[in-house]
Hints:
- The protein is built from one helix and eight strands, in the order αββββββββ.
- It has an eight-stranded antiparallel β-sheet with strand order 7-6-5-4-3-2-1-8, with no helix packed on it.
- By secondary structure, the protein is mainly β.
Amino acid sequence: xxxxxxxxxxxxxxxxxxxxxxxxxxxxxxxxxxxxxxxxxxxxxxxxxxxxxxxxxxxxxxxxxxxxxxxxxxxxxxxxxxxxxxxxxxxxxxxxxxxxxxxxxxxxxxxxxxxxxxxxxxxxxxxxxxxxxxxxxxxxx
Length: 141
């Protein structure tokens, strides 16, 4: 039926990570974000190693975090893609003078995605959050 197909089409899709020959999930070193309504979000994010200073809240263990430097309303900022409690997020925080990977001093939620257990974020179907705007971003690697 049409209504069932439309309901299925509206569900967010999650792209599973590829497997390597040893059975471990691939981890990409960078992600390109395009088409976001908040143009500052667009660009190349590199894999980083966040510290407690960067994220004073719980991140999902053994899941990569990606970030890029930029600006937000005239201030230096770090944009981050990470998974917390099974949900993927695109956020922005003020960058400290040391260039912290993903500073949370003034965290802003821009885009979010459905629950996922993959080590790579979804490529599409991001929700617009508090300080985000349409269209939602598209990710590629």
